[in-house]
Specification:
Helix 7 runs antiparallel to helix 8. The radius of gyration is 19 Å and the shape is globular. The chain has two domains: about 90 residues, no CATH class; about 110 residues, Zinc Finger, Delta Prime, domain 3 (Up-down Bundle), CATH 1.20.272. The chain is about 50% helix and about 10% strand. The model has no long low-confidence stretch (mean pLDDT about 90). Strands 2-3-4-1-5 form a five-stranded parallel sheet, covered by helices on one side.
Length: about 220
């Protein structure tokens, strides 16, 4: 089966992907953005176990010829909507952002580096007059959980294996140096909001852009 997961609600699409991974003994994840769209088929010995290939952030070059040669299950994950669905896709899943947003979703988007989607969710939360303390608190909590994952202490995240997997997935973009830098940005933003130096919505928008930039650096 070839899955296509795309759309702006990357929190939901990543959650679907994590649950799908749990059904396989072996998972190979390839970020095509880093490999400039180049994808090579894994060697045959990897196919002895139930194996899932995950291609992230792009569709491979020459996909129409290459993808049909894949003999095991494959997922293509994209953070934006794809208008034209390739003919070789077996299951097309489009994840749309809805009005049902939360501070948890905002934190997941920010620490996954999804700037555009995070700003859309922020706008919705601000329209609902969500307290700034709650927004800052959700980001501080998420950064702390990512730090646990980087220290191989995921049991402190949660006893739930799915939640552990979600944080470990986000932590792939982070390092201890990045966590420290993000912590300083959060502290400065919090102080700026409390002192009223700038409008809170502007401070928070800038904070999200900065954090996403750190995640993607």
């Amino acid at each position: 089966m070839i899955y296509l997961l795309h759309g702006q609600d990357t929190v939901s699409s990543r959650s679907f992907l994590l649950r799908l991974k749990e059904q396989y003994q072996v998972t190979t994840v390839i970020d095509l953005k880093k490999t400039k769209g180049v994808f090579e088929l894994p060697t045959e010995q990897l196919f002895e176990q139930k194996h899932l290939i995950v291609l992230e952030n792009s569709i491979p070059k020459d996909a129409d010829n290459l993808i049909p040669q894949v003999t095991n299950d494959l997922v293509i994950w994209l953070s934006d909507d794809l208008d034209t669905i390739p003919k070789w896709v077996g299951k097309n899943l489009s994840f749309k952002l809805t009005e049902n947003v939360s501070t948890f979703k905002l934190a997941d988007l920010v620490f996954s580096g999804q700037e555009k989607q995070a700003l859309l969710v922020l706008k919705n939360l601000l329209q609902k007059n969500t307290p700034m303390e709650l927004l800052i608190g959700s980001l501080v909590r998420q950064l702390r959980l990512i730090n646990f994952a980087l220290e191989d202490e995921v049991e402190k995240v949660s006893r739930n294996s799915f939640l552990q997997g979600k944080i470990k997935d986000q932590a792939r973009k982070w390092s201890k140096r990045k966590v420290k830098s993000a912590g300083l940005r959060l502290l400065k933003a919090d102080l700026s909001i409390k002192k009223g130096l700038l409008p809170a919505n502007l401070v928070f928008s800038k904070l999200i852009i900065d954090l996403c930039e750190i995640a993607n650096s």
